[in-house]
Amino acid sequence: MRTILKLTVRGVRCILSRLYSGGRPPAPLGGRILTNPDDVFQHNMWDHVQWNEEEREMAQQKAEENSKHKIPVEEQTKYDRDANKYWDRFYEMHHGKFFRNRSWLFTEFPELLPPDVGGICSSEKSQEYCSSPPICASFPGQHADLRILEVGCGAGNSVHPIINTIRGSKAFLYCCDFSSRAIELVQEHPDYDHAVCHAFVRDICDTTSPFPFPPGSLDIILVVFVLSAIHPARAQGVVNSLAGCLKQGGIVLFRDYGRYDLSQLRFKKGQCLSDNFYTRQDGTCVYFFTKDEVHNLFSNAGLEELQNLEDRRLQVNRGKKVVMHRVWMQSKYRKPYRLSSSV
Ligand SMILES: C[S@@+](CC[C@H](N)C(=O)[O-])C[C@H]1O[C@@H](n2cnc3c(N)ncnc32)[C@H](O)[C@@H]1O
């Protein structure tokens, strides 16, 4: 294991400068860097960890093994058709206790902080979030300066921290999930506040029904661990439809599972639906993205890249003296400003 760690540590030294793309300041993604392999058991998690060839090959092999036998196509339909029912059951069982509140939310996505509570300063904001189309009919959040939507919000692990942050500001939050049980949990939570948030049931694969706000009216869309839950064949349609909700200059903030994350390699044979797409014991599904796939999804929808990176970490079980690789994708994409044609 020492050899593996040494190679991993060597990779770290050259990685930091290559991590980020786009002209924005780099997101922190943690600063706990393992420089001496002997220190590995001193923390539970190390950031910015590079894989060596051996580790990559081992991961690839494990994924190939667990996806050799795909679930027969005729059995697969139910996972897509009844997806919301599987998630309803999930929330019935776990309530809001399964996912932890997203402690990294405002560090990684400071764009969520409204300018009047210490977010992007107003001069930058007016450049970033500006060109709204004229909006006529009344809708929740109509008078807000900053409109945020979280899709696939689950029990509200991001929603409630956002509500507590934007309360008293000129921001408004919309959030939706196709599990009605999840939306009930969001609304039953003591932090839920109708004055700053509108939670609604909505299947984001249904790209034809209207949202409770006009097209082109959102500043930010938060997409956290939800695209992975959707059949990969539907992902592009979903992203296209979300892009239509953004104002010019509006952004998508995305975080999700990356290819060969520990949770992919842990799947047993018989759980694979298609390449890198699996169903869990409870019937919910999960896809594992590469950086190129994320880039294609968002750029095919006409959005421009601000950030697209792999967040690679080493998770340490200090009791059992075991190290495990975690891989998440983190990306930010912006709807470009359209040049108005001069007459
Ligand atoms: C892994 S959970 C993540 C929940 C939340 N974003 C978080 O990070 O805590 C995935 C969520 O996406 C929701 N979801 C999956 N497919 C969806 C769809 N087509 N439309 C709306 N929500 C969906 C599920 O109900 C579930 O709440």
UniProtKB/TrEMBL annotation:
Please write the reaction equations for the catalytic activity of this protein: cytidine(32) in tRNA(Thr) + S-adenosyl-L-methionine = N(3)-methylcytidine(32) in tRNA(Thr) + S-adenosyl-L-homocysteine + H(+); cytidine(32) in tRNA(Arg)(CCU) + S-adenosyl-L-methionine = N(3)-methylcytidine(32) in tRNA(Arg)(CCU) + S-adenosyl-L-homocysteine + H(+)
The EC number of this protein is 2.1.1.-
Query: Which GO molecular function annotation, any one, does this entry have?
Result: tRNA (cytidine-3-)-methyltransferase activity
According to its UniProt entry, one GO biological process term is: tRNA processing
Which stretches make up the Methyltransferase type domain? Answer: 149-251
UniProt keyword Transferase, yes or no: yes
Per UniProt, the keywords (alphabetical) are:
Methyltransferase, S-adenosyl-L-methionine, Transferase, tRNA processing
Carries keyword Transferase? yes
- Identify which top EC class this enzyme belongs to: transferase
Which InterPro entries does the entry mention?
Methyltransf_12, METTL2/6/8-like, SAM-dependent_MTases_sf
Family membership: Belongs to the methyltransferase superfamily. METL family.
Tell me, what does this protein do in biology? Answer: S-adenosyl-L-methionine-dependent methyltransferase.
Its name, as the record gives it, is tRNA N(3)-cytidine methyltransferase
Q: Organism, per UniProt?
A: Triplophysa tibetana
